[in-house]
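Homework help board

Subject: predicted structure for assignment chain

Our instructor gave us this sequence and asked us to write out the predicted structure in token form, then describe one feature. I got the tokens but I'm not sure how to describe them. Can anyone check?
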Amino acid sequence: MSLRKFSVIGLLSFAALCAILYLYFLRVNEIQFEFKHHGYITSDWLINYTNGLVRRGLFGEIAMQTNRLLGISPVEVVLIGKYLAYGVLCGSILLLAIVKGIGFIEILFLISPWALMFDLNDPGGSGRKEILLFASFVFFTLLQVFSKSSPKSIFKRWDFYYLLIVMIVISFMHEGLIFFFPFFYLPLYLKRGFNKSDFLTCFIPYLTSLMVLVVLYIFFKGNKETADAICNSLNPWSVNGSLGCDAIYLLAGKHPKAHIGFIKSFTPLLLLTMIPIYCYGRWIAGLTKHHLFLAMMIPLILTVPLYGIAIDWGRWIHISGLLFFITFFSLKGTSTPICKPSLIAIMLVLCLALPYTFYWRIPHAVGENKTFFWWTQDPAGYIEAWHLK
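My token output:
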């Protein structure tokens, strides 16, 4: 595929993107280092198989085995894994921009509260295992851009084996991310429409991951004994109790519950995220409104059970929004936009860009018995969130 020719505005946008991704990579990894002993941000990564097979334990087991073989602290292994995941995410977005071209709208979306700014506005929700999903998804869409027509037999398709490996591995690292696996089908469906080969390429790995989810939750869900054993296994790297075990003790079944305040707090944030992305999909990919609405609603509906299981609703919105954006961005130029934006539409976007970027944010969760109808942000706070120590 030939590279997209850049206009002057395109070159300026690309330069801005390079700066944004560079600063984001530095800042988000700085946050991971600052919170390397955090009870949720880090300890969920360190769940391991000390007391036998347990859900979410694969990465932690890899970290423990790496420590035994190479002497690297499991905490350092987690940080290295995060650095690599963020590197793949940023690098793949940059390559997509080179191939597809980048403009003001894409820049605006990437620095909006539901995209890259989510990690910086709320460090407590950053560095979680969904970065593995982001890295594997954006790399998948990048490969699809360069991929030629796929053979009909799924067993001759590279993406079938890619998805089979990715979905199974991620399922053993965080079973909650399974609810986002249907997003992998979107780039294929929106590019070529429905065909049996594409569908089975995604559905068989997805079905396999669901089977993994069922087995893990029935036989290897975990309990307090397991959580105690895992937490004790990390004592050599927990000086004076510095390494928290909060996420590990979620294996014991003590999950915080969502309340009515979550619906009141997150519904406006969901709409603020999805409506502009829907408009972007209509404009950039040339999709009809009914076609696009169904294409977005189905994967969103499939994530609904997750909102009942876990309280990190802001993370689920953040994940959905970024996956949709990457999907539509990867489709840029594959079809003719429905219409060119009018001057009124351009002026409206320019007027709304400032408040949309700077004056709201998405938290990863709401506190117990609390309701916030609006999560405020301001330009000073926004800029401070990017500040490198």
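Reply (TA_rk): Your tokens look well-formed. For the description, you could write something like this. The radius of gyration is 21 Å. That's the kind of observation they're looking for.
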